[in-house]
Amino acid sequence: MTTAPGELPLLGHSLALLRRDRIGYLTSLQRLGDIVEVKIGTRPYLVLNSADLVRTVMVEQAKSFAPGRIFNKARPYVGDGLFTAEGTEHNRQRRMVQPAFHRAEVARYVARVSEVTRKQVAEWTPGDTVEMGRQMHILTSEIIGQTMFRAPEACEVVRVARDQLPALLQGLGMRTLLPDLFTRIPTPVNRRFDEACDSLRNSSQRLVESYRKNHSDLGDFISMLMAARDGRTDTAFTDAEIRDQVMTLLIAGIETPATTLTWALYEIAHRPELQDRIVAEATDPADVNSLQFTDAVVQEALRLHHPLWMLMRRAVEPVTIGGVSITPGTEVIYSPAALHRDPTIFADPLRFQPERWLDATPEMQRALIPFGVGNRQCIGDHFAWSMMKICIATIAAERRLTLPAGFTPKTIISSIVHLADLPMVMHRRERNS
């Protein structure tokens, strides 16, 4: 094991991890070995530069690890839902939430996605320039609102989530990498973060209370959670636990798909032939299984532009990973975004090339971990994947997209990596084109 160069007194490698090209920095560590030590402040962390080692931590040796610093930092603000819960409590919650994402339920959700997308696309007047990043956040929030909730009161919490997520994610990213003292300084970032968390928590709480008071069983996400009981512990969710699950759903269900869709649309705008191939197979955009090339576009967007640039796990018992002995309390870091750019696995890794997934090798498939692996794999991965495919197919079928002349993309990195803005010119899609 080697230590990354460039360590600064007291700061360690924190400045490198806070710079604009954070993914580039983490990718550069790959040439130093499968496990590289960095320091955040004065505390050491181990960066895993191998997808196989990540699978070891998340699957084979999962019991030796708990969620790390990022999750601990997030828990007081976003609650103790599936994203932050640990150990047996996480397993209990997963068993109880899982029915809401069974295949039959996902099929019901998916049936609404194309309809919601077509309605929004209809508002994009041909010839207009649309800020696509904002539009994708509106779209994914509408999809979550109309598939997961049936009570009209849910409109409020969906709106709050859509509007407050940027401030929440920016603040969470800063709090993960900076000393705890930073959280007590009333900076604009901290104030916006606190306000965003309070708004999302309070609106989620009001929604749960409204369900208890006004709705017996609507057959939707919250109704399922209210009726759920764990077969092993014979416990039910408290209202506070349901609130935390709602917050988790909104954060994960809106932000990650919206960011991925924005990147995907940016990439296909560069290459009209990609749009043509998507349109050619999208005779029925709601038929998820027919969208094979669109599926490759989503895979490539999640590979090249994965929103999560850093995740962590903390060892809870002595364990050996990749020949390195790890003591309890040691934090390990892995970056899906950097792992997906490993040139030893992905040829020409910085090129957007959906075609690579049409004949992907087992090594490529194994190295792609867009929704995590193991018992902490995203519980809504199948729905999210289907949603993104249908959205892309529907948009491409209804509008031809181009970028303004001279447009240069700029990225913003908080807890995730996203485009600062994406102006796109709308053109009417001729049915015979």
TrEMBL record:
Keyword annotations: Heme, Iron, Metal-binding, Monooxygenase, Oxidoreductase
InterPro entries referenced in this protein's UniProt entry, alphabetically: Cyt_P450, Cyt_P450_CS, Cyt_P450_E_grp-I, Cyt_P450_sf, Cytochrome_P450_monoxygenase
A Pfam family it matches: p450
Cofactors that this protein relies on: heme
SUPFAM superfamilies: Cytochrome P450
Family to which the UniProt record says this protein belongs: Belongs to the cytochrome P450 family.
Name this polypeptide is given: Cytochrome P450
Organism whose genome encodes this protein: Kibdelosporangium philippinense
